[in-house]
Design goal:
Order of helices and strands: EHHEHHEHHEHE
Largest sheet: 5 strands, parallel
Radius of gyration: 16 Å
Strand order of the largest sheet: 3-2-1-4-5
Number of helices: 7
Shape: globular
Length: 142
């Protein structure tokens, strides 16, 4: 069975209950769906930034902390793939080839490449620049 890696945007859509993503996930099974530690980093940074900004509006803190807890719970239920040494080497090689996409996106792409996984994304515009990267868009109807 194939491995599928959600990029950060797809994770966010999934967290908000996108029905097309949910349908695709049922078909492939949760055991075959992965999220990268890069996406975990991005989401936690976002949650923590919101908490930091609540100093001027402390009444928003309870909701901000609740969202942090929800995010933590989501990632505890998911299969995570790390940006390991193999991904780091792949990242360096692609940077040497002057692949022109954002650093975080390239890190996610390299994790997909070294794990022979299919990247689930809507962002074909950027990820298409990565040689040999397999992609699907699960936001579309099955």
């Amino acid at each position: 069975m194939n491995k599928y890696i959600f990029d950060t945007n797809v994770v966010t859509l999934s967290q908000h209950g996108n029905s097309n993503i949910a349908q695709h996930a049922k078909v492939v099974g949760i055991a075959n769906i992965f999220i990268t530690t890069v996406t975990l980093e991005e989401q936690l940074k976002g949650r923590l930034a919101i908490i930091s900004k609540c100093t001027t509006k402390p009444e928003l803190l309870p909701r901000a902390y609740q969202n942090l807890l929800i995010t933590q719970g989501y990632f505890c239920q998911m299969n995570l793939l790390d940006f390991n040494e193999a991904a780091c080497e792949c990242f360096k090689k692609l940077r040497q080839q002057k692949i022109n996409i954002g650093t975080q996106d390239l890190r996610i792409a390299t994790i997909a490449l070294v794990n022979d996984a299919i990247l689930v994304t809507q962002n074909y515009k950027d990820f298409i620049k990565v040689p040999d990267l397999k992609m699907e868009d699960w936001t579309l109807n099955i």
